[in-house]
What does this fold into?
Amino acid sequence: MHALRAVLPPTQGPGPTGERPVSIWSRDLPADVSVGAHSHEWGQLTYTHNGMMRVSAEDSSWIVPPQRAIWIAPHVVHEVTMLEAASLSPLRIHASRDPFGGEHCRVVEVSSLLRELIAALELGEHPREPGRAALLGELILDELARAPSRPIRVALPLDKRLRGLCEALIDAPGATQTLADWAREAGASERTLARLFERELGMSFGQWRQQVRLAHGASLIARGLPLWQVAEQLGYASQSAFTAMFRKTFGSTPSAFFAGDRRRGAARN
It folds into this structure.
C-alpha cells in the first residue's frame, strides 16, 4: 500500500554510564529510510539537527521537526523514519537520570541553548576530555527538565490491514483517496475498515486523517513554511480552511500556537 523503504539497524557506540550520564552518537541518513524497531537499556532523546522525522512507539506516531525532539524511555520499542535527509543525533541518557519521571514518550521543544549544548557534546565526544563531556551532559539534563512539551500525537491501530492504511496516509497526508478507495487497496470492505477505525482508534476515518494532517502541518509551520503552502501540501481547499481546523483542534490559530516558541527563543538569545 506504500513504498518499501530501506531499514537500517540502530547505531552502535558507547552508552551512558553513571559517571557520564549522557552520550551521543550521530550519523547522516538519507530521506525515506527507517531505523528498525528496537529498544535500549538507556533512555533516548531522539533529535535531528536539520530534517523532519517520524517516530513510532507504543501504538502512536509523532512527526518531529528540528525544533522538537522526542524522549523515549528505557526499554520502549520504537522506530525512526527519516522524512528528509538529516543528521540523526540521538542523546543516550542513563536510566537512573530520567528527566521526565518515568514518562514513556514526550515531545519537547529544543531551545537554542539545548541545541548548542548538543552540538558541543558532539564535539566533546573525545576520550581525552571526559570531564567536559560529563559537565555538558549535566547541563543538558538540567535544560531538558525545563523544556516545554509539545504533544502532537497520532494514534496507530493494532489491526494489520488498518495499520497499513494508516502508515500509507502518514507517508502521504495530502492524499485525497476516500475510505472506499483505501478499502479496495487493503482487500477489505469499506464498512469493515470504518468499524475498525471506530473500534481501534475511537474515531472515524475522516477524523483520524485530520489528526495526521494537523500533525504534519504543525511540524511544517514550526519549520517556517508559509501557511498557504502548508494548506496546499495537506490537501486543504484554502489557508482559512486549514486555520479553522487547526483552531478547532488546538484551541488557537497556528500563529498563536507557535508564538510561545518565538517568545521563548527571543528571551534566550
Remarks:
- The chain is about 40% helix and 20% strand.
